[in-house]
Amino acid sequence: MLKRRNFYVCVCMICFLLTGFTFKGEEKDAKVKRVIDGDTFVIENGTSKGEKVRLIGVDAPETRRTARKEIGYYGQEAKQYLTGMLNGKSVKLVFDVGKRDRYGRLLAYVYIGKKFVNRDLVEQGYAVSYTLAPNVQYADLFVKLERQARQEKRGLWK
Fold first, then answer.
1. Buried b (16+ CB within 10 A) or exposed e, 18-54
2. Considering only CA atoms, which of 117, 115, 146, 116 is closest in space to residue 130?
3. Burial of 138 (0-12, 13-18, 19+ CB in 10 A)
4. Quick check: is 1 in a domain?
């Protein structure tokens, strides 16, 4: 009976991990290949394309027009800021509960040394807070920082 229970527990854990969920706080080191826009970049993963990473909890203005979205005010500035911060550098990706979004991108909180990139973008006015469950670890912080950036007219709030 105990063996059967352990088997079911293992099967459940494997299914949980395969659905794109992870253990909160899991980390991965990576090298940034290129920046796509103010909240998305590509890391090296041994393939020519690399792997896309989307910053959790923030949303930067769009840099290009798509079928659903128009180019956003301050989008190019946000992309340039993130490019200057990340391009070619090694970063630490920290995952929350959901590891991937519906487009297959990795979802992460990103650090360069002790600098918390997601926080910096909102604090400097290059992005707004964007909370999407289950990844809500810093939601309150990002809302507070956005409010401060608006009041102090930083970045896109100028």
1. eeebbeeeeeeebebbebbbbbbbbbeeeeeebbbbb
2. 146
3. buried
4. no
Q: Residue 115 is which amino acid? A: K
Distances (CA, A) of 5 to 10, 13, 16, 140: 9, 12, 16, 39
Please list the active-site residues.
54, 62, 105
pLDDT digits (tens, 9 = 90+) for 39-87: 999 999 999 999 999 999 999 998 887 777 777 788 899 999 999 999 9
Query: In this structure, is residue 6 part of a structural domain?
Result: no
For the four alpha carbons of 19, 27, 115 and 38, in that order, the dihedral sign comes to negative
Q: Is the pLDDT of residue 12 over 50?
A: no
Rounded Cα gap, residues 30 and 24, in angstroms? 18
Distance CA 130, CA 105 (A): 16
Q: Can you give the residue range of the structural domain that contains 151?
A: 22-157
